């Protein structure tokens, strides 16, 4: 059963469309990550599910029930906010127990449930402390504990780790994921960090300007982007995206402002309709181009422009040409860190045919 279902959801703030006709559903016990740049509508979507915003159009279902008219308290949802606040005068124990006390749960039950939540979050040793004596990571766990304690059917988390330092974020990533599996609860987790999304999600829903651009497994959104936005957003360094046209006589893609012609196989050629053939974008990920410093059978020969060492890999910019305003047309490649290259050096390139992407420049859609 889908725990959460959005049907044609639209939310406007005066002339801003924060959510633009979004439909999606979570799968049972899924960890769904909603990913997109700042301002794309992630928070508004979560707040709408929680009942804190009221969309003008569309339906929200939790389980079988349409909840549009229900108050937040009647939706059986836990919400962990980006800017969580603990009660400073209460101990960790009382902060976590707070929602149960408010609901008048018996004292012995409260003790048992706080203890079990604290154990899961590994914060049993700090239950007596006040928030002012906690580290950022501990405060975050307490905030999560407080939202878990009611045993909600759905967990909503809005950039819950944005206040933590990088190392702690990596740790909390796997902990949160483990916790969600242990609880067996459906979760929607919002982030603008694609690494977080890739590593935690069962599926990723990618948003831009209020629209859902693609939803799928991390592997699918990375390897089969359905449009230019997703192609450019996922991956660091991002996918090479270069304007091109299709030369039907030669069955080649010609990259604009370069001498580069890329021979295509039938699987790609079959997708190119004549009316769009001179308005295309060629895409390939930096790790799907291989280079050789000695001549190969490849007819794609070019010069190294710049080498950026990252430690675990080098990012090499290859100069393909110059556009009319004098900007460099570059192809970025990820290479092994031990491969030494100098600017100006000639290299031979091999593109993995299976990983070539072609987009319609006008619509941005993948062919
Ligand atoms: P995200 O969480 O992805 O950064 P938000 O959902 O917060 O994005 O915002 C989506 C859009 O809606 C933004 O353009 C934002 O400025 C606008 N918005 C959000 N909340 C309000 C509000 N209460 N009043 C007016 N505009 C808002
Ligand atoms: Mg937000």
Structure summary:
By secondary structure, the chain is of the alpha+beta class. It has helices at residues 42-50, 92-102, 107-121, 136-148, 166-183, 194-200, 218-223, 228-233, 266-269, and strands spanning 4-13, 16-25, 31-35, 57-62, 65-66, 77-80, 154-158, 186-191, 203-208, 211-216, 240-247, 252-255, 261-263, 280-284, 289-292, 301-309, 314-322, 328-335, 346-351, 357-360.
Write up what this structure looks like.
It is built from 9 helices and 20 strands. With 367 residues, the chain is α+β, with helices and mostly antiparallel strands. The chain folds into 2 domains: 4-233, P-loop containing nucleotide triphosphate hydrolases (Rossmann fold); 240-360, OB fold (Dihydrolipoamide Acetyltransferase, E2P), CATH 2.40.50. The protein has a 6-stranded mixed beta sheet, sandwiched between helices. The chain has a 5-stranded antiparallel beta sheet with strand order 13-12-11-14-20. It is elongated and about 80 Å long. The model has no long low-confidence stretch (mean pLDDT 91). It binds adenosine-5'-diphosphate and magnesium ion. Magnesium ion binds at residues 42-43, 158.
């Amino acid at each position: 059963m889908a725990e959460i279902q959005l049907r044609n959801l639209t939310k406007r703030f005066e002339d801003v469309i924060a959510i633009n006709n979004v439909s999606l559903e979570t799968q049972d016990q899924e960890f769904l990550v909603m990913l997109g740049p700042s301002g794309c509508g992630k928070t508004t979507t979560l707040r709408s599910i929680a009942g804190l915003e009221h969309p003008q159009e569309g339906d929200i279902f939790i389980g079988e029930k349409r909840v549009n008219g229900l108050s937040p308290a009647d939706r059986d949802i836990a919400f962990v906010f980006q800017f969580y606040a603990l009660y400073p005068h209460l101990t960790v124990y009382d902060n976590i127990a707070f929602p149960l006390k408010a609901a008048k749960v018996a004292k012995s039950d409260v003790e048992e449930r706080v203890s079990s939540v604290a154990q899961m979050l590994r914060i049993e040793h700090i239950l007596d402390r006040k928030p002012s004596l906690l580290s950022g990571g501990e405060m975050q766990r307490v905030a999560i504990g407080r939202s878990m304690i009611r045993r909600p059917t759905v967990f909503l988390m809005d950039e819950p780790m944005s206040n933590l330092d990088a190392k702690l974020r990596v740790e909390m990533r796997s902990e949160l994921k483990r916790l969600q599996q242990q609880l067996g609860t459906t979760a929607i987790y919002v982030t603008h960090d694609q690494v977080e999304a890739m590593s935690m999600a069962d599926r990723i829903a990618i948003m831009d300007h209020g629209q859902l651009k693609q939803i799928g497994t991390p592997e699918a959104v990375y390897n089969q982007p359905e449009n230019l936005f997703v192609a450019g957003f996922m991956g660091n360094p991002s996918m090479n995206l270069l304007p091109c046209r299709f030369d039907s006589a030669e069955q080649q893609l010609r990259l604009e402002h370069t001498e580069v012609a890329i021979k295509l196989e039938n699987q790609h050629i079959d997708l190119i309709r004549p009316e769009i053939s001179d308005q295309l974008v060629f895409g390939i990920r930096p790790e799907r181009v291989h280079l050789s410093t000695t001549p190969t059978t490849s007819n794609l020969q070019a010069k190294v422009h710049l080498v950026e060492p990252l430690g675990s890999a080098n990012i090499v910019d290859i100069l393909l040409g110059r556009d009319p305003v004098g900007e460099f047309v570059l192809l970025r490649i990820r290479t092994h860190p031990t491969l030494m290259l100098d600017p100006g050096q000639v290299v031979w390139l091999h593109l993995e045919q299976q990983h070539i992407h072609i987009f319609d420049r006008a619509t941005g859609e993948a062919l």
